[in-house]
Design a protein that fits this description.
By secondary structure, the chain is mainly beta. The chain folds into 4 domains: about 5-170, no CATH class; about 190-200 and about 210-305, no CATH class; about 315-435, Pnp Oxidase, Chain A, CATH 2.30.110; about 460-545, Thrombin, subunit H, CATH 2.40.10. Helices cover about 5% and strands about 40% of the residues. The protein is built from 3 helices and 39 strands. The protein has a 17-stranded mixed β-sheet that branches.
């Protein structure tokens, strides 16, 4: 069977549709990601990091010549393409689709090896299977049985956009462990732990004891045989609802040799011991697994004011590229898009930040960002060139279920960014470049203290604006077709804008020369993206801050903010006379 690379929703997916050797081993592992903090007393705080299961499918393949050849020929051309594989336990006719184990957003239609929406009408006599999109967990390595036959085991782990997520078909309550599921008694392990640790101090016979404040608890592990697709769906639905270790629930203790007491109960509050569950399929409707549970004694009656099951947490990153028309982008570290009313939709991105540093010093309030070079990443404006404007950042934190309630935890300016391979490291500062400003702002000096075209200056910027079209860009020399005939260097110290919107580039003018219907501008650095002719251009003259320029060029002497007639040297200080001939006294 072929191993084609197809384009789907803008993604490249290599479809591996070769049927596996089910007798050689077939398993599915379901993963969630929970952070767990445990206190000295044994009380826990648990937070789930995502809501959709992440699935791994491991299959054994025996590929004969045609399939092995197609597989090997595709591997060198994979590049960054995803791997798409059917969930073979749900390989069913359309007429059997109600008996599936999983719900997927997309399916494989085997009659034409295509990807179809799960919402489409399925042909009763067509075969379908849920589409798992991800990456190879390990690089393929197989054993050649003959010159034409290859045997190998492949594991594809789910690693794909939210639109390809897979869930269990059945919704199961996470309040109690399913009553219809019992161990098969091939392997039941009973265990008990407490927090006591012994340490020898000195050469005596009695050890030092630590950790006695931790409450003891029971644990158990048992093997299960799930003998129907209904039982498989029930267990998966329960694991999905419990979100691995996150939720506690009422569960039986499978080994209970004596009477039911508070210390040795028949039922208790427990949670899953791990964030993964593996099903080993013997057939499409039979699977075996091992389940491990830990008792959570502090949650049997609960502790006032404590919530062990903390909601998921998402961070919302709002970047504002402070151009004349601000360019705003929204990103989140969460697995799916999150929308804040009146703010916008935050799209999933590979982005995170470190701890936010605050202190008594005014130079505190910094944060470090880590991202990769995903499309639209605003930090790319710093690499390899300087950004055309300030890049402002707001970081909010909140529950994915209620984005509008997210609270602002940091606001400032991205001060710098650097790249290493695909990674970008950036530093944000609450105060930006405030501490780099000149202080005091108004000095006793001959030159002007204010910026040209500012409110204090009073010169209207629009009066001196020249509109034109970029004719050519060679290095730092821009030739602009326009109606200006101003003399040489009239626009020196000024500014030129090329392009518009998100790709606007702004440059300082170092020199200018009039031409026939043009102005030739020498700028401080070459254009990065708008060098092609035909781009719109706007430019303005500059000012050297001298009183004479303020009058002759802008007729603005009355608003000059300097002291043009003050002496250059301090009149309160007497110049020391020097003797040009050191030999004379």
């Amino acid at each position: 069977m072929s191993f084609p690379i197809v384009s789907h929703n803008g993604n490249s997916i290599a479809l591996l549709l070769t049927p596996p050797n089910m007798g050689g081993g077939y398993s599915l592992t379901y993963n969630v990601n929970t952070s767990l903090d445990e206190g000295l007393s044994g009380r826990e705080s648990r937070r789930v990091k995502h809501e959709a299961l992440r699935i791994e499918q491991e299959c054994s393949y025996t590929m004969e010549a045609a399939a092995a050849d197609a597989f090997r020929k595709t591997l060198p051309n994979l590049g960054t393409a995803y791997i798409g594989v059917p969930l073979w336990c749900d390989y069913l006719l359309g007429s059997q689709w109600a008996d599936r184990i999983h719900n997927a957003e997309y399916l494989v239609q085997f009659s034409n090896s295509s990807i179809v929406s799960a919402a489409s009408t399925l042909g009763a006599n067509e075969y379908y299977a849920p589409l798992l999109v991800g990456r190879f967990k390990d690089k393929p390595s197989g054993e050649a049985l003959t010159q034409d036959v290859l045997e190998l085991s492949l594991t594809v782990k789910e690693d794909s956009p939210w639109e390809y997520r897979i869930a269990c078909k059945d919704t199961v309550s996470p309040v109690s462990f399913p009553a219809n599921l019992s161990p098969d008694w091939t392997a039941v392990n009973d265990k008990w732990v407490d927090g006591i640790e012994l340490e020898a101090i000195g050469d005596g016979r009695v050890s030092s004891i630590d950790g006695e404040e931790k409450v003891s608890k029971w644990g158990q592990k048992a093997a299960f045989t799930l003998s129907s697709r209904s039982e498989i769906r029930t267990l998966l639905g329960f694991f999905e609802a419990a979100k691995g270790r996150w939720a506690s629930f009422t569960a039986p203790l499978w080994f209970r040799p004596g009477t039911n007491t508070a210390a040795t109960p028949y039922t208790t509050k427990a949670r899953f011991a791990a964030d993964n569950l593996t099903l080993n399929f013997e057939a499409g409707n039979v699977a075996s697994t091992e389940i491990s549970l830990w008792q959570v004694p502090w949650e049997i009656n609960g502790v006032a004011g404590e919530t062990p099951q903390q909601p998921a947490r998402a961070f919302f990153y709002k970047f504002t590229y402070d151009l004349p028309v601000p360019q705003i982008t929204h990103w989140t570290n969460y697995e799916k898009p999150l929308t804040r009313t009146g703010d916008g939709t935050y799209m999933p991105a590979r982005i995170e930040h470190g701890s936010i540093g605050y202190g008594l010093n005014l130079d505190g309030g910094t944060v470090e960002l880590t991202t990769d070079r995903f499309a639209g990443n605003p930090l790319l404006k710093f690499i390899p060139f300087n950004a055309e404007a300030r890049l402002l950042l707001e970081i909010r934190e909140g529950a994915p279920a209620s984005p509008d309630a997210a609270t602002l935890i940091w606001s400032g300016e991205v001060a710098e960014a650097s790249g290493s391979g695909k990674r970008i490291k950036a530093k944000g500062d609450v105060f930006g470049a405030v501490f780099e400003r000149k202080f005091p702002r108004f000095l006793m000096q001959q030159g002007c203290n204010v910026t040209l075209f500012s409110a204090a200056c009073g010169v209207v910027k629009a009066t001196y604006q020249v509109n034109g079209t970029l004719d050519s860009s060679i290095g730092t020399t821009l030739t602009v077709t326009c109606g200006s005939t101003q003399a040489e260097n009239y626009y020196a110290r000024g500014e030129v804008w090329v392009g518009s919107g998100a790709t606007l580039e702004r440059r300082m003018i170092l020199a200018s020369t009039p031409g026939t219907g043009t102005q030739v501008l020498t700028v401080d650095r070459p254009l990065a993206v708008n060098g092609a002719g035909g781009m719109g251009v706007q430019f303005w003259p500059g000012c050297d801050g001298q009183y004479s320029t303020c009058g002759s060029k802008y007729n603005n002497k009355l608003r000059f903010r300097g002291h043009p007639f003050m002496p250059r040297d301090n009149p309160a200080l007497k110049r020391v006379a020097t003797n040009p001939d050191a030999r004379k006294k």
